Structures are given as structure tokens and as C-alpha cells.
Model the fold of this input.
Amino acid sequence: MTTTEENAIELPHSDAVSLAVKEILMTACGTVAEQCEDLGEEMFHEGVIISVISVMGGVEWSIFLGLPRSTATAMAEGFAGFAIPFESEDMGDAVGEVTNILAGNVKQILDKRGVNIEISLPSVFRADGLHILKQRNSQASRICYTTSMGPLWTGVIAGCDAGVVA
Amino acid sequence: MQLNAMVIDDSGIMRKMVMRSLSESEIAEFTFTEGTDGQDALSKFDPSVHEIIFVDWNMPNMNGLEFVKKIREMTDHHVPVVMITTESTMGKVEEAMEGGAVDTFICKPFTTEVIKKKLEPLFEKLQDAAESGDNFFGALANKFA
Done:
């Protein structure tokens, strides 16, 4: 996954992820997501939780959802209806579920475009910081959002494996 | 009315959310058995105890539909199954409903109100079964008499 704009490549249908983010954050977490300029990796310095879902079929992607600690805490509470500590197992479950719902919505959007996909179960990672590396020949797009619960980031990567170093 | 429910999901937070919503719905007084996937739930399932099942579709080891097929072979009466799903598996769940394996479904994200509304038609069916003496649901229907 690239961290610089000159390397960002728009992937076919990756706009479906943006559409799904806006809908799902409203229905699942009760917050409005506004797309914004790249926020860099500073937002992850307080701690970060990343959830990844693999997409197979009409497009071959990995979809990422990245939440800084404060956003994750607020969003998990919005989703579950009760407070969830950042360090708990429940936090991983909550962020994984939001990603699962997000990917389900992406699938529905792509179905309507005649693109059939299957999605994996989510994998969730928690870290104290994050530096994202892009491997050669991979195509990637990263979109940052602001919400009333704090900033967040989504990404789509395709083409080859990406290395994520925390 | 007291109901023994199984709640099966590999996500602990989803199990908590389902149980919390069911308790808040006040549609019945639920006692819960939790399952962490289809395999775990199968080892805990007792057809003489569990009266209604809330099961996630997408789980490791044994998915929700595989679990439902197994329990259908274990019982001579119909245990109502509520499938919990995302939009990604809606089509498959609808097929499972048409085939009679699944009674209704709840799409994530859900609210207590949504769960209540989804259960009402099922509970009406149980009431009808109780009134007509239909044994499809076994002893469970007697609770709705």
C-alpha cells in the first residue's frame, strides 16, 4: 500500500469501497464519513487497529480498514452500544464485524455492476504504530475520512502482496 | 414466556449484541447457550433443551448452514432457526429459507427493534401451530398456546 500520492493508482471498482464506507459507518456506527485529503501515518501514532478482508472473484483485492485508537474506541461503542476497551478481544471482534459488514456492502454494490465476488473472514491486527510499505507492481488506493468519531482510513490493494510493518 | 436459545457466532461481540438485543426486546425471557462456531455449537446442542437458534452464516470450521443441516438430522421436530447475515450472503440465506432450513434472517447491522419485528411473524406461526395442534414445532408450540 502506498503512502505517497504519486504512487496511488485508481483500481477498477475501488469506488465501491468508498460508497460502502459512507453507508456502513452511518448504519452500523451512527457517524457520517467525509472523504478528506491523505492524513499520513501520524494518525496511527496513538495506536492502531487494522482489519483486512480478502476479496476473490471478479476482482482480486484486499480491503483494509484502519482506525486510530480513539476512533476505534468511539466507533466500537457506536457499533455495539456499550464501551469496549481498545486492548480487549472484543475490540478486534467489533472492528472485524464492521469490516465484514463493509465488505458485504461492497459485494452488493459490485453485484449490481455484474461483478461477482466472494469475501473472506476478517483478520484483525492491533499495533502501537504503523508504517505501510507497498511492493512493486501492486496497485493500491488509500482513502482517508473524517468522522465525528475521529479519522480513519480504508484501502484497496491488488496485484501482489503488500508488506505491513508495525 | 421463557425460551432456551442458542446464539452461535465466532465473534464474541456479536454474540453479546444478539443476546443483549433479545433481552431488551422483551419478546420473551431468554436463557442463552453460546457457540463459537458450528462445530462447537453442535457439541452443545440438545434438541430437548434448545428451542430457538440464532446462528451466523459465515464462520470458520463449520458455517451456519452446515450446522443447521446437521441439527435437522438430529431432531424429529422443527427447531426455529434465525440466520444472522451480512449483505454478502443474503442470496444464499434466502435460498436456505425457501428450502425450509432457515425460518427467518437478521441482516447486520441490526437493532433491537429489527430483531423484534423479525421474530413476530415466527412467533405468530408458533401460536397458529399451538391453536391448530400442529406438531411441526414439537413441544415448543405449547408455550405459545
Observations:
- Chain B is about 45% helix and 20% strand.
- The domain at 2-144 of chain B is CATH 3.40.50.2300 (Rossmann fold).
- The CA atoms of residues 86 and 108 of chain B lie 5 Å apart.
- The mean pLDDT of chain B is 92.
